[in-house]
Amino acid sequence: MRLRGSITVENAVIVPLFVIITVSLIMLDLYIHDNLIAKSTALKLGVKAEMELSDYAVMSGADRNIVKKNICDAGQIYAAEKTISMRNVRLEVQDGKKMVSVVCYGNTPDMISRITKKHNVSAGADITVNSPPEFIRLINAAKNIIG
Predict the structure, then answer these.
(1) What is the dihedral of CA 106, 61, 66, 122, to 10 degrees?
(2) What keywords are assigned to this protein (predicted)?
(3) Listed residue (47, 49, 50, 106) closest to 79, CA to CA
(4) Domain boundaries, the chain
């Protein structure tokens, strides 16, 4: 019986290639997951900031900064709990009379950054500040026009 070495040689090439592809796909999935969590965090905190900072004329600058710091702290805790590989999570909340912007930043491990060619994760959300009384008037006017 003659043993052939071709199976060993083929497996020496195929198995490592299969492992590299599998690990790369898992790392890419982790990067996509963390990107989605960062975007979700930015959107959730944008809505929360819009609700808490909607009384623009009433709140003082110091009170607004305290609210923004509390929102950023809550977002950092949320993002740190939900992300798998993102590190050094930080959030920024910027507000104005018409818009609230929230940006979530983080770093990915070196192994993921080699695959995705990106070392930083950044996701933002811009939320337009609503005026509920004005919105209700517009809806009622639309109802009256439609009939």
Answers:
(1) -10
(2) Membrane, Transmembrane, Transmembrane helix
(3) 106
(4) 6-146
